[in-house]
Amino acid sequence: MDNNLNNTELLEKIKELESKLQECKKNLNLSLAKEKKWEEFFDNVEDGYFEADTNGNFIFFNNSAYKLLDFSKEDFDRDKAYNNEGIKKLCEVANEAYQKKETIKVFGIEIKRKDSESNFVDIFAFLNDKNSDILRIKGIIRNITRRKQIERELIKTKNFLENILKSSIDGVITTDLHGTIIYTTPQILNFSGYTPEEIIGQKIADSYEKGKDEAKKIMKILTEKGELSNYELKFLKKDGNKVDINLSASLVKNEKGDVIGTLGIFRDVTARKILESQLRHAQKMQAISTLTGGIAHNFNNLLMAIQGYTSLLLLKIEEDTPLHKIPEQIEFQIKKGAKLISRLMEYAKEGRHELNLINLNSLATKVSDEFSITYRNKINIKLDIDENIPMVLADDAQIEHALTNIYTNAIESMPYGGNVYIKTYKINSKKITSKRFTLEPIDYVVLSIKDTGIGIDKENIDRIFEPFFSTKDVSKGAGLGLTSAYGIISSHNGYIDIESEKNNGTVCSIYLPAC
């Protein structure tokens, strides 16, 4: 009886075990199906996915991960794989996540490929759910190679554009809508004296001579036309001086087409302006010289005719009669007119030269001594002579005449007395900073006459060499002293430069080519 019962119980146990076995098989199949389903899911994910156990063993890679790490499922060998730089970096990140029990993010990792190319990836490693029975380190490998390539291309393009801008002679400045400078090229230093670091953040209007009015005018043109070309203005340098600028500008827009600022190309045209001014001055003086020469010749012909008729009158009128004095006075005025013509001829560069090697120190001393005696109670002349200056090839009589005219002009500018400083020296044209003329690339001997007189107004300084121009009363001269000096020095391939300020004296410098 008992044996039968035992067999029955045994059969029931067997059936129960078989039922549980079937259940296990069923659950196992479901689990395998589920795992296969998740594997298929991860294999179709674009990002790489991996799992590792707490011993540092990788237990799963999806297809994208194998591809990024440059392995395939078939040829993945654990020992070889752990020598791979990418796998090593993956181990480091997974281990750090496990040790710190937090998500670890590492960006821009380079993984060398077998074909010598590289993949760039971002790696994220984290722990699975703490409630899970088995602890796993999971991670995502994101391919950023394309992004890196784009970044490299952008950097290359940026460097290329920066090199173009840096190679340009012009300065480039961009501003926001409020007129604040947000970018500038290094060339800004060349004409403004500011480094990019110093000027960025300033208002562009503060750099304009006319300030906000100029900035508003520029912005109005840009708003109406969208661009600006060959706009000329004065730019304030760091040291307070001004430079002439030619500005071309346009509006800067974002990808939506909204205006976000301005871009300006600033070209320093100061040198060009100086050359243009020199050319205009030279052309004007040449035109006046030609006109003066023509007038002097015609005037000379008239004087010759008058002189002829006057000589006839003197022959016809007896000397002891009162009428004889009239043609004598006419003849006296003719002689004065002849001197005037002679000075006009000098300005027109039609005077005769007897060229010799002369020392300007000797001429300066001679003329200074004569004027010191004549004006000893009024004028104090001080000499600063360089004994080593070279000789010059010139007509000493004409140069002395020019010096006399300049000395006279200096003394007449000091009605209450003063000082005249005479200086001689040699200088190379490269060191001459005058903006009134362009010198030949040679050495020059300079004779400088500086007075402490009333000076010259700015509006008159460009006219002082013109014939018959004078700021003095008509009764005090014909205005031909500096005109004659200018003509004489010019005919010797030299130059005269004038520097003066109202009520602050005048410096007249004669430049003659050194022998």
Radius of gyration: 48 Å
Give the percentage of residues in beta strands.
Answer: 15-25%
Number of helices: 14
The proportion of residues forming helix, as a percent range, comes to 40-55%
Unreliable sequence segments: 28-34, 474-478
- Please list the strands of the largest sheet in the order they lie side by side: 2-1-5-4-3
Largest sheet: 5 strands, antiparallel
Number of strands: 17
Mean pLDDT: 79
Report on this model:
The protein is α+β, with helices and mostly antiparallel strands and 515 residues long. It is 45% helix and 24% strand. The chain has 14 helices and 17 strands. The strands form four sheets. Strands 2-1-5-4-3 form a five-stranded antiparallel beta sheet, sandwiched between helices.
Secondary structure elements and pairings:
Layout: H1 2-43, E1 48-52, E2 58-61, H2 63-69, H3 78-81, H4 85-100, E3 104-112, E4 118-127, E5 137-143, H5 145-167, E6 171-176, E7 181-184, H6 188-192, H7 196-199, H8 211-225, E8 227-236, E9 242-253, E10 259-268, H9 270-316, H10 325-347, E11 356-358, H11 360-374, E12 379-384, E13 392-394, H12 396-412, E14 418-428, E15 443-451, H13 458-461, H14 481-491, E16 495-500, E17 506-513
Parallel strand pairs: 12-14
Antiparallel strand pairs: 1-2, 1-5, 3-4, 4-5, 6-7, 6-10, 8-9, 9-10, 11-13, 14-15, 15-17, 16-17
